[in-house]
Amino acid sequence: MPWKSLLKLPDFGLFRQTADFRLSVSTLRINGILPSRGDVQVQAENLATQVRCHKLDSVVEDISTDRGVISFKVNRKLLFSSTVMKTTISTDEKFGLNSELLNTLKRGTTLVEYSSPNIAKKFHAGHLRSTIIGNFIANLKQTLGNNVIRMNYLGDWGMQFGLLGAGFGQFGSEEKLKQNPLQHLFEVYVRMNKEAEHNEDMKQAARDFFKQLEQHESQAVSLWQQFRQITVDEYQHIYKRLGVHFDIYSGESFHQDQAQEVVQQLQSQGLLKTSEKGTGVVDLSPAGDMNSVCTVLRSDGTTLYITRDIAAAIDRKEKYNFDEMIYVLLFSRDINIDCRCQHVPFGLVQGMSTRTGEVVFLEDVLDEARARMLHNMSQAKTTKEMDNPEDTAEKVGISALLVQDFRGPLLSDYRFDWDRMLQAQGDTGVFLQYTHARLCRSVLKYCYATTFDPSLLLEQTSMTILQHLLRYDEVLYQSAQDLQPKHLVNFLLKLCHLTASAHRELLVKGSPPDVAQVEKKLHQHAILNN
Length: 530
Ligand code: ARG
Known about the structure:
There is one protein chain. It is built from 21 helices and 15 strands. By secondary structure, the protein is an alpha/beta fold. Among the domains are: about 1-75, no CATH class; about 155-245, no CATH class; about 380-530, Orthogonal Bundle (Isoleucyl-tRNA Synthetase, Domain 1), CATH 1.10.730.10. The strands form five sheets. Strands 6-5-4-10-11 form a five-stranded parallel β-sheet, with helices on one face. It has a three-stranded antiparallel β-sheet with strand order 1-3-2. A hairpin with a 5-residue loop joins strand 7 (about 270-275) and strand 8 (about 280-285). Helix 17 (about 430-440) packs across helix 20 (about 485-505) and helix 18 (about 460-470) runs antiparallel to helix 20 (about 485-505). One of its GO terms (biological process) is arginyl-tRNA aminoacylation. Catalyzes the attachment of arginine to tRNA(Arg) in a two-step reaction: arginine is first activated by ATP to form Arg-AMP and then transferred to the acceptor end of tRNA(Arg). It catalyses: tRNA(Arg) + L-arginine + ATP = L-arginyl-tRNA(Arg) + AMP + diphosphate. It comes from Mastacembelus armatus.
């Protein structure tokens, strides 16, 4: 648009003309668009005249000047009807997606690996973060039109299965395994681990079991399979509470044999070097001086975790031919194999515990969130009778967890704080759900009309909400760029605050019918966005 280039305005970002906006001569001077001398009002008027000569953009309907400030007025009728209102209820989930800005994003197949817990081991805060962040990224990519493959890479191989297999023979119970599989497997593993520390026979039994597994002996394999399947079933059930699912449950076990092939491939390409210690390494140093290496082979010829990880990456590329693969994990294991692979790191969570102590299972966190929320609801005077308070408490509690985690930059560490995250006021998931519920109840139910006159919306509150809603695509764009959920979460929280002011200031009930109709429509859009 010519007038924008005249003012050297960026195409996207600050000036998308969703709001009336002003530019002062002094700013334009600093940016070198105007000379730094002369009368400011004269300069402003000259520039305004030039801009008027260029065809104004249809959204900017008027331009005026006052004491060195140029004001651009947007055509709110056009803005309102063409941009927001053409999105009808029936296409609600498409809101904001048909955008020039979003169309500039590359699309393709995205494989996202997240959650990836280890069978029979603790599900720690890092796994929780990986689960919810990965799910956010997968949802975002899917919403933006990518073909998304959601993968869980289980820790389903290794010496822990030796301990588990041998330990199950000693301390296991089929009954308990059915009742509470994750708990029971964890108990057996912990107990056997302890025993093996001082009992040589136990240690040997574990080694033997793992050897049988590696040699694919059917009895060992079938027990392993049972443990794995039961774990996957249980996790699927718990993930569902979080709104999380996976297309593929892969795992380390899948790539045992392929790991040796990786070593061979590296060798045939001349990339495998032998270190002074006799291990097999790949030289990653730019100078080629072995300053930074990746060990892929122990001196006894066995492969390492990373070797299987490389095998897994190659296998995924061959099977799913992704355009990008995103690993959502706490620690970088140097798996940025090429530029199509990206690592999304995140910070530590301190103090994640429940009333009964340290968190061991994902289910504990979810149960605690629900119980605490239920308690808060029973304390609040304003809580209305509801059909299923448990279900409400569960949903609100989980929102609280998500908002706590997503508000800041992913790389920041944070302190887990039940009381703060479950507060009804302030930037919490509870406030978000409350606003959404309130909108649904008071507005959606009574709003049927399809025609209205947006120019009747004169209050600044309405305009601000409208302008905010129109930033939605920018918010998605930002998140797509850096894969951070904070943009979206803060956008929604702001929307909630704006909605709260609208509730105070725009009294749909008392307004003349035509104005009320538009106001309702606006509320409705706030709902859809939530
Ligand atoms: N299971 C691992 C852990 O709990 C995480 C797996 C991460 N993914 C990977 N491709 N290495 O630490």
